């Protein structure tokens, strides 16, 4: 029976009845919770005898949880529904890759074969009836009574394949025709298309006779894929299962994209500055934090304020800025969580360990200390991921440690793998550099002298982690014992004395307290940073305020960046003037040194992009082959697509672009649709998806058109510049001309 006001339904018989709370209706089935909180799925009852259900443990068929139920007078059945999500929910975000869809269909069909051996068959299969558990394995709620055969099961599996591959339901049009798969899927394999058509019973193709025939066809197709593409079987090891659990969480894709986007920028990439600056500038918070760090005392020896990411890369080096960005992204992503306080303390420990690794690299004479810093941070990735994604397991590990178990042994017992193996598995998925992944491994109790970069990084990362634990120990005897263990294990391979190790700890501790606020790791009343303040003889209260003062050299940069996110006003804005003037000074200093022309032009573009708060900014240059001014590089929304469409023909057309170039005049168009100008806006520009207001500054050298600077905003009239602001923009354009002259052979 049901009580519609409280959404409850009773299942079972007599004294064994169970009460379920209905949660949500999804595609004709109900998600519910039992009295003990266990999730269940309620489906219309086809007359299945619960007492005779198949005892299945390893296939895609689920056991009915109880007997007959009743909702509004109709019989229903309750299935066990574990942790995970329905396939329907999964497909709402995106379709499955073809290999994943085929693998999932085969698992469901294996369940059908198993059920058939038990005398059962499958009914209509929909995505709402498929549960993907936390390891990605499917369970199915679609059994029919013994001896009953469903003619719809085969077409249901065909529609499910259609749904998995396209992300859309197989809904026919008014003529009864289904959409063509080839119209919905790019580069669809015709072999797979034929299998789906046969399962759906489409006209003109021979249908499958039964589910087992479909299973055989999919098995053959999967074997062909494996032979041609080398597709590996799904990893069922403990590491593989944990990684699949992580990959299916809501937070992980964003973290993967953020880390992977930075990690994939190769050191040898000729356009690496553009790539790195573009990735960082997408995130306003990350941009400000990188600039604050670049202007902090740790990097202040380079002199002068750094106001752009491009300038930071030119001054500090590509590797340094890339390392800082990766560390910042990891800390910011992992600190934003339900268990934020506990996680932040673990992140603070990893942050301190990374600074220790950097100091050890400095004192050992290693050439790339920032590489050591990132290695120190990522060495503890597995531990951080466990606390972030497997909090229940992390609590079990902590309990074992409190009972006297060694930390690494407890982790392996609960997770099935070590922290290091988990972190390395995720890092491989992110395509991080091999030597960074190697540095995440545990070091030998007696390390050999390092021979390669990977050996050095592993040594620094392990030593940094061990020194971190020793430094943060609660009692002085523990600290002293831990420090001696680090000295005895790592001192000789790193060629560092006990005194050098102690100095490294002191320097790293000071730097940690100084930089913590930039990373969003203000000290609490307890925890790693509070312990460092205590050891330094500083009061824990007010630590956040003390640390925040470390960012003062970049205060003007932060103010300008915040203002850049606000709508621009008509009068001159002091913060915009400051940002533009700072860039003029940076370019002046760059021009008297050795520089790459593209790097300098990107510095100018980045300043215009951030200070003027435009949607897009680019530089376009003349192409002799195309007789046009074409987009070269820039920053902003969909910039790569826009650059490809930005092509100004150098013909005799009297549009606003040609007039501007021919007169070498700087022009700000407030509204492309205003009656005074709309006839002068060329069709190619409108088709390119440009903004409604834009700024043009030609680049003309010796009366020859070389190119132009372009910036736009979407809303008409939203790009307004004060007189001094425009003058500084022109100065930057003139500096670009000077740079081009210097780099152009006479």
TrEMBL record:
Domain HDOD: 252-446
Record-linked InterPro entries: GAF, GAF-like_dom_sf, HDOD, Kinase-like_dom_sf, RNase_Y/CdgJ
Source organism, top-level taxon: Bacteria
Protein name listed in UniProt: HDOD domain-containing protein
């Amino acid at each position: 029976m049901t009580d519609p006001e409280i959404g409850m339904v009773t299942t079972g018989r007599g004294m064994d009845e169970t009460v379920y709370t209905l949660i949500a209706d999804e595609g004709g089935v109900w998600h519910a919770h039992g009295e003990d909180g266990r999730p269940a799925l309620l489906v219309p009852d086809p007359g299945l005898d619960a007492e005779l259900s198949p005892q299945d443990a390893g296939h895609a068929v689920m056991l009915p949880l109880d007997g007959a139920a009743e909702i509004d007078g109709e019989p229903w059945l309750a299935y066990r529904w574990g942790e995970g999500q329905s396939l329907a929910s999964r497909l709402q975000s995106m379709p499955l890759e073809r290999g994943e869809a085929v693998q999932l269909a085969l698992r469901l069909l294996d369940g059908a074969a198993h059920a058939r051996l038990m005398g059962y068959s499958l009914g209509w299969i929909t995505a709402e009836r498929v549960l993907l558990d936390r390891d990605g394995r499917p369970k199915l709620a679609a059994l029919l009574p013994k001896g009953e055969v469903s003619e719809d099961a085969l077409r249901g599996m065909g529609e499910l394949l259609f749904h998995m591959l396209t992300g859309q339901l197989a809904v026919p049009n008014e003529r009864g025709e289904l959409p063509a798969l080839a119209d919905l899927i790019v580069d669809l394999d015709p072999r797979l298309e034929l299998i789906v058509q046969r399962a759906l019973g489409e006209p003109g193709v021979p249908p499958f006779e039964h589910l087992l025939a479909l299973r055989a066809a999919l098995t053959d197709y999967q074997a062909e894929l494996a032979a041609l593409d080398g597709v590996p079987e799904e990893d069922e090891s403990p590491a593989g299962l944990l990684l699949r659990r992580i990959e299916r969480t809501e937070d992980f894709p964003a973290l993967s994209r953020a880390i992977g986007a930075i990690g994939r920028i190769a050191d040898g990439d000729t356009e690496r500055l553009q790539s790195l600056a573009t990735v960082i500038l997408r995130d306003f918070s990350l941009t400000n934090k990188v600039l604050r760090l670049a202007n902090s005392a740790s990097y202040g020896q380079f002199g002068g304020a750094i106001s752009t990411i491009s300038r930071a890369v030119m001054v500090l080096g590509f590797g340094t800025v890339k390392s800082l960005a990766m560390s910042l992204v990891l800390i910011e992503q992992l600190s934003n969580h339900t268990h934020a306080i506990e996680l932040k303390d673990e992140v603070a420990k990893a942050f301190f360990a990374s600074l220790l690794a950097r100091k050890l690299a400095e004192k050992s004479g290693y050439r790339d200390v920032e590489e050591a810093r990132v290695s120190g941070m990522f060495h503890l990735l597995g531990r951080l991921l466990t606390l972030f994604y497997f909090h229940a397991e992390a609590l079990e590990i902590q309990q074992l440690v409190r009972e006297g178990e060694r930390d690494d042994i407890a982790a392996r017992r609960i997770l099935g793998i070590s922290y290091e193996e988990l972190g390395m598995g995720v890092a491989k998925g992110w395509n991080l550099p091999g030597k960074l992944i190697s540095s995440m491994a545990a070091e030998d109790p007696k390390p050999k002298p390092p021979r390669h970069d990977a050996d050095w990084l592993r040594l620094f990362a392990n030593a940094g982690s061990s020194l971190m634990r020793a430094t943060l120990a609660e009692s002085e005897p523990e600290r002293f014992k831990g420090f001696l263990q680090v000295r005895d294990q790592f001192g000789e391979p790193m060629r560092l004395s006990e005194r050098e190790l102690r100095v490294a700890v002191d320097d790293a501790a000071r730097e940690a307290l100084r930089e913590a606020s930039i990373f969003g790791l203000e000290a609490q009343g307890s925890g790693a940073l509070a312990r460092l303040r205590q050891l330094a003889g500083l009061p824990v209260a007010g630590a956040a305020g003390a640390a925040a003062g470390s960012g003062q050299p970049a205060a003007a940069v932060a103010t300008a960046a915040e203002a850049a996110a606000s709508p621009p006003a008509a009068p001159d804005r002091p913060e915009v003037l400051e940002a533009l003037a700072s860039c003029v000074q940076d370019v002046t200093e760059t021009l008297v040194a050795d520089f790459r022309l593209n790097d300098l032009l990107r510095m100018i573009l980045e300043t215009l992009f951030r200070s003027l708060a435009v949607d897009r900014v680019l530089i376009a240059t003349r192409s002799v082959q195309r007789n046009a001014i074409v987009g070269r590089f820039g920053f902003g929304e969909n910039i790569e697509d826009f650059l490809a469409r930005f092509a100004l023909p150098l013909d005799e057309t009297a549009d606003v672009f040609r007039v501007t170039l021919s007169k070498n005049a700087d022009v700000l168009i407030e509204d492309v649709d205003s009656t005074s100008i709309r006839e002068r806006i060329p069709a190619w520009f409108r088709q390119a998806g440009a903004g409604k207001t834009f700024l043009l500054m030609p680049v003309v050298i010796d009366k020859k058109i070389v190119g132009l600077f372009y910036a736009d905003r979407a809303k008409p009239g939203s790009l307004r510049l004060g007189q001094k602001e425009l003058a500084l923009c022109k100065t930057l354009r003139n500096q670009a001309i000077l740079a081009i002259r210097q780099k152009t052979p006479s």
